[in-house]
Amino acid sequence: MNKNPLVSVIIPSYNHEKYIINAIDSVISQTYQNIELIVIDDGSRDGSIELLTELAEKKSFHFISQSNIGVCKTLNRGIRELSKGDYVALLASDDYWQPTKIEKQIEVLKNNRNSHFCFSQAQEFVSDSGKIIRLFPAKPLSGKILNSVFIRQHVPAGSMLFSRKLYDEIGGFDENLREEDWDFVIRAAAETEFTHVAEPLLMYRTHNQNTMITAGRRKIFQQKAFILAKNYHLVSPNVWLRAILLHYFYDHIISKISDFKFIKRFL
User: Which tens digits make up the pLDDT trace of 21-52?
Assistant: First the structure.
């Protein structure tokens, strides 16, 4: 690894005019200096485009706007067509990072030559009140963790830092999917050891427009089932069966209780 490799940070933006400045500032204020920031607006219908056009000029980051094509195509475009970094990090436009996020992850990767993928813990908080809900994952795992991430996605997407080499090897994000992270994590775990920083370097914002609130549980399970089916060959039949049964049970039974408790926080 180069002493200070270039890290490309991709922020896909969609209707987050209220939060995007916080996300951008958290990248610009990183203690690790060798970063290029690329912000892509994916067809926002609020005031995001006007705001980002002005911010890009003031804060000197690369900004483009496009018609809506979805998060996976947007990420692939940002990485393949616009980025130059040896490493890539992703940040949702409604979340933000702690200042030492990239610095600590690069240091971990420097000390773990067999790993091309590093993640951290995240802190989930309620947007309006700032109240901390949880720290996740409670016990982050390192090493060869394919079976673990196949059964349950416990890698916060906004905490991921991975090499461009790994991204190219696994073919990027699957553009047939609505949600990008779990499928990518599974395929990455099949190719490399994972490392982590056991600190909440990502602040994950909960609000009433989060995907898990706006999407129906049936559709969420259908996406999960598709991801598990397409990656069936990577694990044993026992692991695959355990994963599909666990998510069916969760999305059809447990989630009804969880969603009710979540919705009550906004009443």
Answer: 999 999 999 999 999 999 999 999 999 999 99
Distance from chain centroid for Cα 18: 19
Nearest 10 degrees: CA dihedral of 82, 112, 158, 170?
60
Q: How far is the CA of 32 from the CAs of 128, 161, 187, in angstroms? A: 30, 13, 28
Cα distances (Å, whole numbers) of residue 165 to 118, 128, 140, 182:
14, 39, 24, 19
Please state the pTM of the whole predicted model.
0.90
**Residues 6 or more apart whose Cβ sits within 8 Å of residue 141:** 148, 154, 194, 196
DSSP-assigned states of every residue in 201-245: EEEEEE-TTSHHHHS-HHHHHHHHHHHHHHTGGGS-HHHHHHHHH
SS3 state at 179: coil
CB 160 within 8 A of CB 119: yes
Beta-strand (E) ranges in the chain? Answer: 7-13, 35-42, 62-66, 87-90, 96-97, 115-126, 132-136, 161-163, 193-206
Asked if 61 contacts 39 with a C-beta cutoff of 8 angstroms, the reply is yes
The label of the residue with tokens 């890009």 reads: 56
d(CA 122, CA 98): 10
Which pLDDT tens digit goes with each residue over 72-125? 999 999 999 999 999 999 999 999 999 999 999 999 999 999 999 999 999 999
> Are residues 130 and 139 in contact, defined by beta-carbon separation less than 8 angstroms?
no
From CA 207, how far away is CA 266, in angstroms rounded? 8
What residue has token string 């219908």?
45
Looking at the DSSP bridge assignments, the partners of residue 39 are: 11, 63
